[in-house]
Input
Amino acid sequence: MKKIFVYALACLALASCGGNQTTQTTETEQAAVEQPAVAKTAPVATDGKVIELEDAAALTPGVKVEQLTVVDFNAVWCGPCRQLAPVLEEMAAKYQGKVTFISVDVDKFGDLFGAYEMGDAIPAVLFLKPDGTSFKKIGTGDLMPAENFEKIINENL
Output
């Protein structure tokens, strides 16, 4: 009988503590809802290098980019991806301040690859306009040699 009484007292004590936590959580949630939403923007390279994506939320479909952005979907184990990487690095240096280059590892961010409906082959490259729309999705063959890549960029600057 004592065990039941002690158990009941413990439950009452926990319930009263939990009630305060629920109120605090609700107030915190309400404060978060009342704050204005922050517009999502993609990262911008200022040093002429390819940016390695670290947060998928920074590049979800519809994200606003400040300038023409080239998104390379790749994987570290992919031979053609490794062949394309130096071309991307060369273009990032050449178009520094005009075009942002972002590298996305599909093993880490496969959902993002699917969200942009990139197909099923890598490497795949997506071009994004500052208004958040994509205008070209292409594979490696369309970008090699580097002159082909430059032509696409120059036509869209």
Observations:
- The longest strand covers residues 68-74.
- Helices lie at 2-34, 79-94, 110-115, 146-155.
